Amino acid sequence: MSLGKAARSLLTPARGVLRSSAAALNRSYAAVAEARAVLETELDSIRAAGTWKAERIITSKQGPQISVDGSHGSILNFCANNYLGLSSHPEVVQAGIDALKLYGAGLSSVRFICGTQDLHKNLEQKLAEFHEREDCILYASCFDANAGLFEVLLGPEDAVLSDELNHASIIDGIRLCKAKRMRYKHMDLSDLEKQLKEAQSSRMRLVVTDGVFSMDGDVAPLQGICDLAEQYGAMVFIDECHATGFLGPRGRGTDELLGVMNRVQIVNSTLGKALGGAAGGYTVGPKPLIDLLRQRSRPYLFSNSLPPPVVGCATRAVELLLASNEIAQSMTNKTMRFRNKMTQAGFTISGSAHPICPVMLGDARLASLMADEMLKLGIYVIGFSYPVVPKGKARIRVQISAAHTDEDIDRCVDAFIQTGRKHGVVS
């Protein structure tokens, strides 16, 4: 065979391979292009519905007054979960700096390998003390705490009874467990009792509710829930993300507010709102439950430990609340000042006596437009619409902080009245 023929015989299969690779690459490009088209169509539908959620850029620390990219001067912030104003409290910030210097930026490990420091155990002990429970376990977020609880606690022979408007993290966490899943109508004790009767054949029954429902600011009827739970042999779980630190005489939460601390078995909450606002969540409850979560809770076992600066900040926030209830008690008057003035102006405010004050508008475009116009008046608020809230129930959710002054609140109300009159919401 000539050298030329030999070369051609070698090149022929190579060309086949190249053609095959090119065809596969073209199919890959086509798949990506098709996926992009599907995604763009979905994005266009969100924009067309007026429910697009743009992210404003803050160029300052969190607080009652902030700086916003594209806006001039100081802006009053009325939509943060910074209920007690601790996100930028000097003692909380300094505690984070001290922890950073002493313990480093992070652990590069999960808790059970080499990720547990004494400051983690100290914070868990203080949170258990704060909630008056036996023990505590930390998570990267309360979403993780909710994702990690139900799968461990409940099996196929158990039943979980959940309020239909519970937070998305509770819903997702319940989906992971194999228990019989039952939903009762929102804060409807009659329907809950009906569901409890149907669940009597189950080994364990767990009633699950938000302590405060974050979109409407309404408080769960915990006294009635606990009565029914005891009557029908069930345990009670509450998510206290929008209550810990400021509801109740000492800021312990909804269960303290309603006098049922010793009747609620399990509490999940967050470090990312009133308790410093950085990150992190936790479960407090019976020690055997916490011990089992450390062994089997997947978000705990497979997520890095909370960074030391976050733990340091949260620890100091809890210490401040353990030492005094003054900050927590300051919330009530400020909340009612806003609610009363807005109601007198003709606005509809959902919920009752909670710092979450949803200004109900109904139309998603209107909520977004009014929020943008409020920013021009120096007030930072955000319009909430589907899928965060049900269709037709768009609103601007105002959140009062202990750091707001009466003058701040009055200025916010005046801005609402100005924009509300412009769009025919109030006369």
Automatic annotation (TrEMBL):
Residues 75-416 form the Aminotransferase class I/classII large domain. Its EC number is 2.3.1.29. It comes from the Eukaryota. GO terms for cellular component: mitochondrion. Signal peptide: none annotated. It is an enzyme of class 2 (transferase). InterPro entries: 2am3keto_CoA_ligase, Aminotrans_II_pyridoxalP_BS, Aminotransferase_I/II_large, AON_synthase_class-II, PyrdxlP-dep_Trfase, PyrdxlP-dep_Trfase_major, PyrdxlP-dep_Trfase_small. Its cofactor is pyridoxal 5'-phosphate. This is 2-amino-3-ketobutyrate coenzyme A ligase, mitochondrial. It comes from Salarias fasciatus (Jewelled blenny).
